[in-house]
């Protein structure tokens, strides 16, 4: 895809949604971190349902530690993979208390050292809590980037590196939200809604569905 087309796609996505953000509900970096950790292979809707009950009771590392693994499970048992997520959340809270003064570190290496926190979660937290121009590539962004040919790659890491290279600075902070939302609601996995797509004329996917 050429530079002009790429710029036009990003401009249209921005004009359509100038202030995008995550659909996960949070009020602090810690709430965001835990919500992202819980959202792996689960929907944001299911995470929000659980955190709406959990956070009024416990929304700090110490408060969640005090719940213990079993206490925490009671709040998150409707979320997929809740057993391992409860274990990781408790371990992460313990590390935040013991090593980071109960504050979410604004540091990639420190975030990725937390149990259950990989590159994607660190990218989301750095981007959405701290405003870094990081691009967390999930299944939606991977699909949209490859289909449109905005940034092609065989793995999520390839696509992340490509996007970081080709997306101009002014779009970097928000591009991950635009692409996730586009993939979640328009460029869906099975039957993309090409007829309702605002970048249809620019997209280079060969099997568009009208
Ligand atoms: S035209 Fe279709 S394939 Fe291309 S981005 Fe839009 S929805 Fe996805």
TrEMBL record:
Binds 1 [4Fe-4S] cluster. Signal peptide: none annotated. InterPro entries: DNA_glycosylase, Endonuclease-III-like_CS2, Endonuclease3_FeS-loop_motif, Endouclease-III_FeS-bd_BS, HhH-GPD_domain, HhH_base_excis_C, HhH_motif, Nth. Residues 38-185 form the HhH-GPD domain. SMART domains: ENDO3c, FES. Its EC number is 4.2.99.18. Pfam families: EndIII_4Fe-2S, HHH, HhH-GPD. [4Fe-4S] cluster binds at residues 187, 194, 197, 203. PANTHER family: A/G-SPECIFIC ADENINE GLYCOSYLASE/ENDONUCLEASE III, ENDONUCLEASE III. DNA repair enzyme that has both DNA N-glycosylase activity and AP-lyase activity. The DNA N-glycosylase activity releases various damaged pyrimidines from DNA by cleaving the N-glycosidic bond, leaving an AP (apurinic/apyrimidinic) site. The AP-lyase activity cleaves the phosphodiester bond 3' to the AP site by a beta-elimination, leaving a 3'-terminal unsaturated sugar and a product with a terminal 5'-phosphate. This is Endonuclease III. The gene is nth.
């Amino acid at each position: 895809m050429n530079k002009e087309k790429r710029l036009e796609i990003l401009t249209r996505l921005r004009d359509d949604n100038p202030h995008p953000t995550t659909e996960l509900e949070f009020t602090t970096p810690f709430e965001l971190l835990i919500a992202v950790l819980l959202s792996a292979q689960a929907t944001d809707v299911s995470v929000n349902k659980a955190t709406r009950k959990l956070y009024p009771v416990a929304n700090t590392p110490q408060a969640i530690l005090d719940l213990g693994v079993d206490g925490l499970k009671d709040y998150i048992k409707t979320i997929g993979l809740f057993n391992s997520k409860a274990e990781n959340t408790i371990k992460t809270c313990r590390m935040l208390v013991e090593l980071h003064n109960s504050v979410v570190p604004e540091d990639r290496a420190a975030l990725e050292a937390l149990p259950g926190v990989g590159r994607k979660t660190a990218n989301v937290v750095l981007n959405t809590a701290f405003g870094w121009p990081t691009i967390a590539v999930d299944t939606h962004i991977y699909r949209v980037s490859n289909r449109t040919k905005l940034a092609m790659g065989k793995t999520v890491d390839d696509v992340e590196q490509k996007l970081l290279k080709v997306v101009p600075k002014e779009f970097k902070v928000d591009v991950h939200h635009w692409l996730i939302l586009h993939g979640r609601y328009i460029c869906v996995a099975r039957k993309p809604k090409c007829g309702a797509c605002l970048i249809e004329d620019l997209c280079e996917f060969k099997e568009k569905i009208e």
